[in-house]
Specification:
Radius of gyration: 33 Å
Helix content: 40-55%
Number of helices: 13
Strand content: 5-15%
Largest sheet: 4 strands, mixed
Structural class: alpha+beta
């Protein structure tokens, strides 16, 4: 009680002096003990903020908690770097079979731990996103998994995007595969499968689409040839012409011409030769290599458009795309 009274007297005296506009010299040995330093105040404030954030995060997560089986599944998939998985993966990791594995998946889906992509194919939802988030992962990784282990490569407009040959985002994913699969739609992305022969698997490369996942993609030269052969999967000839011009410094013309020999397509030779000459990307000898095997038949420059326009005798093409539009590409 004496200590409390003494402190009250000191405070009263200090306030009285301040009220009289008087100053005193601060001496630590005479001052009462400080209850909290500024550093401690800052630390306490940080602790309160962290506690508040933790409470908010816990509240946001709600019932998104992991049971022992779900936890084992999530840990193993993350260690594998495998965010997209199948029912067979669940059975292998958890030891569950049939209906028991499907029940585990169903419960995990209801709690927001995974997203169903299609029957038998799922993707992990990052825990920090919360249960209400609709998460589907990388669309190119999903395309790979949809091939169910069959050989594949991302092609046409998708390969053009991965090689940065386009300026507009692509919402249709094109996959060339030996597997015959109908088009599928998964959470805003359309997946189109182009059936190819085993002999057509050449000119391929690997591209990393996440820190842990890579996909097989046609290289730049093969991508351009596929787009010229089937421009309906690449946005039409004007888009292919833009891709050719954008990638002009990275394209190897000798490789391009070697790849052409694999395809017995006169239309491909005509379209490629016409564009290479238009943009002055090939030598006369290289152009002659394409022209030497042309027949007298004419093809449309863009097979996705009606038969119209003038005829170009040098390359045996009907120019149903405005030449002015193509010539303007280098200036846009």
């Amino acid at each position: 009680m004496q200590t409390i009274a003494l402190r009250c007297d000191i405070v009263f005296l200090f306030r009285s002096l301040r009220g009289s506009n008087m100053s005193i010299e601060y001496k630590p040995q005479n001052a009462p003990p400080r209850l909290e330093t500024s550093a401690r105040k800052s630390e306490a404030s940080d602790t309160r903020l962290e506690t508040s954030a933790l409470k908010s995060a816990t509240s946001a997560r709600g019932s998104k908690t992991l049971g022992s089986r779900s936890s084992a599944l999530s840990v193993e998939l993350n260690e594998r770097g495998q965010t997209t998985f199948s029912l067979r993966d669940v059975e292998e990791i958890t030891g569950l079979r049939g209906s028991s594995a499907r029940t585990l998946i169903h419960k995990a889906e209801r709690r927001g731990l995974i997203t169903r992509l299609r029957s038998g194919l799922y993707t992990l939802v990052p825990f920090e996103l919360g249960r209400a988030t609709e998460y589907v992962g990388d669309p190119y990784v999903i395309a790979r998994e949809m091939c169910e282990g069959h050989t594949y490569f991302l092609s046409h407009a998708s390969a053009m995007e991965l090689h940065r040959m386009v300026t507009q985002p692509q919402f249709t994913i094109y996959v060339s595969s030996t597997l015959r699969t109908p088009p599928r739609s998964v959470h805003g992305h359309e997946y189109r499968f182009v059936t190819v022969k085993p002999a057509d698997f050449f000119g391929l490369t690997q591209v990393w689409v996440t820190k842990q996942q890579s996909v097989t993609v046609s290289d730049k030269e093969r991508t351009l040839l596929d787009a010229l052969r089937q421009p309906q999967y690449a946005g039409g000839i004007p888009e292919v012409a833009k891709a050719l011009w954008i990638s002009r410094d990275g394209i190897k013309i000798p490789r391009l011409l070697d790849y052409v020999e694999h395809f017995s397509s006169g239309a491909l030779r005509r379209r490629l030769g016409f564009l290479l000459e238009l943009y002055r990307m090939a030598s006369p000898a290289q152009l002659e290599r394409l022209r030497s095997k042309l027949t007298s038949t004419y093809d449309r420059l863009d097979p996705t458009l009606p038969k119209s326009g003038s005829f170009h005798s040098r390359w045996r093409l009907q120019l149903n795309v405005g030449i002015d539009e193509l010539q303007a590409i280098p200036h846009t």
